């Protein structure tokens, strides 16, 4: 599957264009993989017969095969999807690719595009600054996609602003979705000083919501590649630390790997769909990972639809040299 480097894709233009390119690339790869499920809830095709919903006709399939095929879905009722974007200070880090905030926001924009294409509802919750509460209520109209993408674009341009923990945002989503099962997608680095986010994710799953985590990290956060005496600057405080990376690398990497293992294990035990993503990984490949995992879960013998093995692609800690975004919170 031809792919674009995330930095190159970011230069394509407006966010709606990038979102469409990512979705089309991922769906192309999904079809080539011969897996049922070309979208969040899509199951398979069947030949059209009188009485089938015209809105479910796959016009691309008609153009290729000159026959009408209808997309079948796992649940015919309209799905509500909540996208939850971490815009805290740590998401400003960029060492080996895009800023984590820009990567996570762009990937959620692609998911919003995909959900609206399915005629389902999508909403957005952005957290990061305790003084700012950004919530776009879920709606299913095509025009609503513009509203969602405009907010994501604005947030990415504004940058990370604070240190509001993810658990607070997830609790708000739990209140909003308490009457009906929803798909909840969190894009975050999961850096939580109070260590409450994993518990919040598991509680959402226990409430029968379908929960997906896009654990977004930078390649440098997994490798700490710096050499020589380096000044590390925190992004969510004024803390600075002058250190020799060679002297702290082993301990740092051990803590990072322990942190990642704990996140993956907690999500797996709680039935949460967990994906570890790197900001230098092509967007369409990352989205394809999510779609193929969900398609396999819905296949016969594929499990309960809430658990998936982590997709591990290179990523790392929370520190950066002076003059670059960084974070000093230990893991």
Mean of residue pLDDT? 79
Question: What structural category characterises the helix and strand content?
Answer: alpha/beta
Q: In the residues, how many domains can be counted?
A: 1
Query: The CATH topology, please?
Result: Rossmann fold
Relative helix content: 25-40%
What series of H and E elements makes up the topology?
HHEHEEHEEHHEHEHEEHEH
Record field, number of beta strands: 10
Number of helices: 10
Radius of gyration: 20 Å
| Apparent shape | globular
Structure description:
It is a single chain. The protein has one domain: Rossmann fold. Strand 3, helix 4 and strand 4 form a beta-alpha-beta unit. It has 331 residues and is of the alpha/beta class. The protein is 40% helix and 18% strand. The strands form three sheets. It has a six-stranded mixed β-sheet with strand order 5-4-3-6-7-10, with helices on both faces. A two-stranded antiparallel ribbon has the order 1-2. The C terminus is likely disordered. The protein is built from ten helices and ten strands. It is globular and about 70 Å long.
Structure at a glance:
The protein has 331 residues and is an alpha/beta fold.
Write the topology of this structure.
Layout: H1 6-10, H2 15-32, E1 42-47, H3 59-65, E2 69-73, E3 80-86, H4 100-117, E4 121-127, E5 134-139, H5 142-158, H6 166-176, E6 183-188, H7 197-206, E7 210-219, H8 220-223, E8 230-233, E9 240-243, H9 245-269, E10 273-278, H10 283-298
Parallel strand pairs: 3-4, 3-6, 6-7, 7-10
Antiparallel strand pairs: 1-2, 4-5, 8-9
Helix pairs in contact: 2-4, 2-10, 4-5, 6-7, 7-9
């Amino acid at each position: 599957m031809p792919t674009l480097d995330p930095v190159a894709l970011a230069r394509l233009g407006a966010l709606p264009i990038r979102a469409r390119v990512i979705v089309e690339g991922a769906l192309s790869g999904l079809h080539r993989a011969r897996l049922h499920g070309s979208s969040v809830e899509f199951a398979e095709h069947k030949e059209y017969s009188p009485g089938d919903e015209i809105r479910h006709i796959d016009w691309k399939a008609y153009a290729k095969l000159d026959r009408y095929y209808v997309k079948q879905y796992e649940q015919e009722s309209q799905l509500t999807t909540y996208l939850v974007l971490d815009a805290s200070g740590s998401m400003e880090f960029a060492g080996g690719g895009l800023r984590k905030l820009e990567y996570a926001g762009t990937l959620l924009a692609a998911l919003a595009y995909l959900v609206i294409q399915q005629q389902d509802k999508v909403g957005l919750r952005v957290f990061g600054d305790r003084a700012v509460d950004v919530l776009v209520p879920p709606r299913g109209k095509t025009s609503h996609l513009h509203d969602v993408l405009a907010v994501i674009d604005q947030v990415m341009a504004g940058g990370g602003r604070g240190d509001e923990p993810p658990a607070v945002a997830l609790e708000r989503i739990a209140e909003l979705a308490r009457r009906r099962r929803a798909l909840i997608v969190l894009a975050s680095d999961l850096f939580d000083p109070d260590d409450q986010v994993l518990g919040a994710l598991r509680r959402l799953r226990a409430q029968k919501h379908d929960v997906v985590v896009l654990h977004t990290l930078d390649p440098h956060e997994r490798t700490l590649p710096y050499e020589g005496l380096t000044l590390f600057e925190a992004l969510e405080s004024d803390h600075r630390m002058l250190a020799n990376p060679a002297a702290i690398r082993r301990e740092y990497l051990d803590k990072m790997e322990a942190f990642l293992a704990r996140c993956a294990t907690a999500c797996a035990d709680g039935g949460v769909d967990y994906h570890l993503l790197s900001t230098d990984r092509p967007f369409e490949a990352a989205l394809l990972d999510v779609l193929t995992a969900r398609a396999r879960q819905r296949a016969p013998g594929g499990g309960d639809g809430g658990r998936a093995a982590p997709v591990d692609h290179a990523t790392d800690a929370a520190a950066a040299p002076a003059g670059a975004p960084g974070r000093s919170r230990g893991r």
